[in-house]
Amino acid sequence: MTDPMSSTVDTAALDHPDRPAGNAMLAVSGLCKTYSGEKQRRRRAAGLSAVAAVDEVSFEVAPGELFTLLGPSGCGKTTTLRSVAGLERPDGGTISVGGRVLYDAGRRVNVPANRRRLGMVFQSYAIWPHLSVFANVAFPLQVLPRRERPGKQGIEQRVGRVLEATELGHLADRPATKLSGGQQQRLALARALVVEPKLVLLDEPLSNLDAKLRESMRFELKRLQRELGLTAVYVTHDQSEALAMSSRIAVMQAGRIVQVGKPRDVYEHPNCAFVADFIGITNFIAGTVAAIDGDRCRVQTVDGDLWVAGGPPVAVGATVTLSIRPEAISLRTSPAGGSAGGAGTGSAGGTAPNRLRGTVVNRAFLGDSVDHVVAIGKTELRNRSNPAQSIAPGTEVTVLVDPDKVALVPE
Amino acid sequence: MTVAPAPRGSLRAGWPAAGRLRAWATPRTLVVGGCVVIIGYLAVVPLFYLLHDTFTGPGGFTTDAFARAYGGNTQAGEMMRNSLEFAVGSAALALVVGTGLAYLQVRTDAPFKGLFFAASLVPLIIPAILYTAAWIFLADPDIGLLNNSLFKPIFGHGLIDVFSIPGMIWVQGLHLAPIAFLLMVAAFRAMDPSLEESGLMSGASRVQVLRRITVPLLRPALISAALLMFVQSLESFEVPGLLGLQNGTYVFTSRIYFVLRTYPIDFGAAGAYALGLLAIAAAGVLLSAWLSRNRRAFQTVGGKAFRPRPVDLGRARPWVGGLTIIYFIGTVVLPLLVLVYASLLKFYTAPSVQAVKTMSFDNYRQVFHTPIAMTALKNSVLLGVSAATIVMLLTTIASWIVVRTNAPGRRLLDLLAFTPLVVPGLVLGLALSFVYLRTPLPIYGTLLILLISYVTRYLPYGMRYAGSAMGQLSAELEESALVCGASWGTTFRRILVPLASSGILAGWIYVLVVSFRELSSTILLYSPGREVLSVLIWEQYENGQFTVLAAVGVLMVAILVTLVLVAYRFGARIGVNTDD
User: What is the residue extent of each domain of chain B?
Assistant: First the structure.
């Protein structure tokens, strides 16, 4: 690994406190995949260099975890998942599930997809339209090697069990095409689970559902995963889905994993501007570190100083970017006497919030919240408040930000 | 239609003023009405006369014609058996080859995919009559290149005889295979590859996936394609005409031709055969359409573009590549080469030093110095261009009515414009001669009757191109022009036609190309002195001038290749979808 960027990322991933201890269910290391197809030829013809779809991706998933690969389209998350599935042949790296090596470029091991014994739910569900609900779920059992294949009754029992678990029992005899979107989704899951795979792969399983159903399926999927103790790799581009469901999230960008962590950590302490921006809405403020006080530091910005607590270690004089989530900003209309001019008044390193003076310039009512845009000097900050608070544009306000809620994003 | 200067007035400018009569006599209603009448006339009148003349004897209504055609002679039974054997065999061959190639094209990383595409142009650039002639040069039992130069030295005698039912099946099947290929490519593309992938993930082997998932899912498409191939083979005149007439192996089409060339001409019997053929063809097409309509029931999540994820062929890849090259050489290169080779000879013989020594461009010189050949070329161009223009004009308007309006008769109009699809060329030719033999207008025996025939035959193709072009345009584009104050005519001319132009152009070129090689209706309608290129080739074959025929053929292929290239230059997609 000559690229400094990738080495820092890797150590970050490996040294992370949330790394699964010891025997991982899924271990992927150094996974690489470059496309050699038409697209690549076109790129080369256009004078662009070959682009790796997946570039040195490594991660481990512990038993019982729901591990999410999150990123914008084209970031390599689906290619990573399909490589684990065996539907795509990587160029390098290793993949093992439960200690069984499925792919190892060095040892020329590549177990075909149909021998990997994984469950997979496709984005389009891939429900076979010529079969009934029962027949769809029975299929994986019917194609098991002869000595493992259960008898007719065994198949009926096992299919019945998994259909009950997914609440499709009463629909077993229906043609698969006569199901609603949510039911098709559950059917796809039932089919993936019927052989009790060690690992389930979920490729954007909720993206074809409408917004309301998606919300409820999130909980449903999470419940099933927890109750059945499934280990799952989940691919999505929807950050709220990832936050709501995952045990851990790996954020991917341009073929690499840029941050791995628990949802709250990734949200509150993004390790780069990309992650901060991709997961949720955020305010970026550029500044320089002016002073350090224990685990806190004072960052000087154009429009005043801000105290930051619990960021990565920095040196005085370093240029940094601060990320503040809209909901971490609270507004006060009461004319708070005292420090005008907006300098941080965290008195003597206490835990008091940063205080800034600003003016509301815009406001939008969103139903479950009210968004304000507040101008502080030249900087505009976006706030998200409880709908009870609604401040008319033009009003002077005091802006309060807890130092804990200011994330220091390394450059 | 002028746009009123005042913005307030402009909104109303397109709408008729008061007065019921004036409200009806807008340019829009006149154009639309005219179009409907013409299409209705073209589609219905010939069929009416075909029925009328077949069922009318000297004493009124009679079924004598059917008795003469089908009853009492063993030939009729044999003819039907031949037809069935020929059509089923060709359809099966075309389907097997086409489906195999389509699978390789869409689902695998097979090499030389460009060759599939090139091979799929064969039916466009090599008319069936030339393809058949080329196979005669290759597989004639005595002088055929393959028999003479390949099999005789090895086995001591020729192995294949193109003048037989298997020979006819071979030529027709290979000529149709690209069409089956295109249909199946569409079917494979419409099928979500993750349906197969989820089979693999369930632990099924490739063979199990193929047998239990791929084939059942493609069954409707396969059956529908098979029916279309069957109907196309049944309608084919060129192949059984060239290969079967001389030794008395008749099928429906060649039987009709034979009856009409035997004096005294029994129009009734020909009509009876034509109606039989029409009934079978119509049933096939309708059944196929019905099946492909039902295919929608098999869609789970619709409207998604599937990312192609080709299957790794692995060790089989070089073998597949080799077979592809053999297929390409056998079906494209050899027939074309043998035509070129024959066109340079004085008399057709197997290649030898002697033969090479006598090679010259005399045949081409002869073609260019024969007035009849030049007339034929001129007639073909004139007919092709006129037919293409009229067809696209009619169908652009007709498809606008069908796609855009909710006029009461629009379903009927759609149906009328598609009716000629089920009418075999030879049947249409016969029907048109029934119509215009009795009209006092001097149409029979002129180029006009050929034009009418071409326009009728190719209405459905025009509808398909224009209809899909119109369907892709949002109605709002047109409505906004109307709101801006443009009249209907202006909107049509300045908004719709330019936006749909690439589709319309594609249709225009397609109709031009297919008109150029039309033989099956022309053969019954042309009169001596007014030949077109395809008829010229037919005549030369009958006169035994094989090498001149080859020269005309080479010129014809050159023209068609040019046309197709021009079409691609304009980005028009004809025949095949180029994106993969």
Answer: 92-219+312-342
Question: 10 Å Cβ neighbour count for A400?
Answer: 16
Centroid of chain to Cα A256: 13
Cα-based distances in Å from A319 to A299, A324, A327, A379, B342: 9, 17, 25, 17, 82
Evaluate the omega torsion of the peptide bond into residue B264 and state whether it is cis, within 30 degrees of 0.
Answer: yes
Task: Please tell me the distance in Å from B6's CA to the nearest CA on chain A.
Answer: 40
Chain A residues whose C-beta is within 8 A of a chain B C-beta are: 37-38, 85-89, 112-120, 122-130, 139-140, 143-144, 176-177, 184, 188, 191-192, 195, 208
User: Average pLDDT per run of 10 along chain A, which is 411 residues long?
Assistant: 39 42 82 70 60 87 94 89 90 91 91 90 88 92 89 92 89 88 90 91 87 85 88 92 92 92 90 89 89 85 84 83 90 62 45 84 90 89 89 90 86 66
Contact A388, A294 (CB under 8 A): no
**Please, are residues A252 and A77 in contact by the beta-carbon 8 Å criterion?**
yes
B214/B193 Cα distance (integer angstroms): 9
The half-sphere exposure of A51 on its side-chain side, counting CA atoms within 13 A, is 18
First to last CA, chain A: 21
User: In chain A, what residues touch B208 (CB-CB under 8 Å)?
Assistant: 143
B92-219+312-342 under CATH 1.10.3720.10, yes or no: yes
* CB-CB under 8 Å, B202 with A128: no
Q: Tell me which residue in B198, B206, B298 faces A122 most closely, judged by beta carbons.
A: B198
| CB-CB neighbors (< 8 A) of A114 in chain B | 199-206
Q: How high is the pLDDT of residue A57? A: 93
Contact assignment for B300 to A177 by CB distance below 8 Å? yes
Which pair of tokens denotes residue B124?
A: 């466009």
Contact list in A for residue B202 (CB cut-off 8 A) is: 114, 139-140, 143, 191, 195
Q: How far apart are CA A197 and CA A97, in angstroms?
A: 10
Q: How many CA atoms lie less than 13 Å away from A143 in the CB half-sphere?
A: 26
Q: Which of A185, A267, A275 is nearest to A224 (CA)?
A: A185
The CA distance from A81 to the nearest CA of chain B, in Å, is: 13
Answer whether B578 touches A (CB < 8 Å). no
CA distance B310 to chain A (A): 10
The pairing of strands A66-70 and A248-253 is parallel
Q: Which structure tokens are listed for B495?
A: 């908004």
Chain A within 8 Å of B318 (Cβ-Cβ)? no
H or E element that contains A399: strand A396-401
Find the closest chain A residue to B213 by CA distance: A128
Distance from CA of A23 to the nearest CA of B (A): 24
Domains of chain A: 4-118+197-276 (3.40.50.300), 281-332+352-409 (2.40.50.100)
Of B194, B206, B208, the CB nearest to A122: B194
Q: Find, among B497, B496, B513, the residue nearest to B567 by Cα.
A: B513
Residue A31, φ and ψ in degrees, nearest 5? -70, 130
Three-class secondary structure assignment of B269-293: HHHHHHHHHHHHHHHHHHHHHHHHH
| Residue of A219, A230, A247, A220 lying closest to A194 (CA atoms) | A230
Q: What ipTM does this complex have? A: 0.76
Tokens found for residue A122: 């496709």
Nearest to B298 among A119, A130, A208 (CB): A130
pLDDT digits (tens, 9 = 90+) for A260-312: 999 999 998 888 889 998 988 889 988 888 888 888 888 888 888 888 887 77
Judge: A125–B304 Cβ closer than 8 Å, yes or no. no
Closest residue on chain B to A184 (Cα): B300
Q: 0.90 exceeded by the pTM? A: no
| Residue B299 pLDDT grade (very low, low, confident, very high; cuts 50, 70, 90) | very low
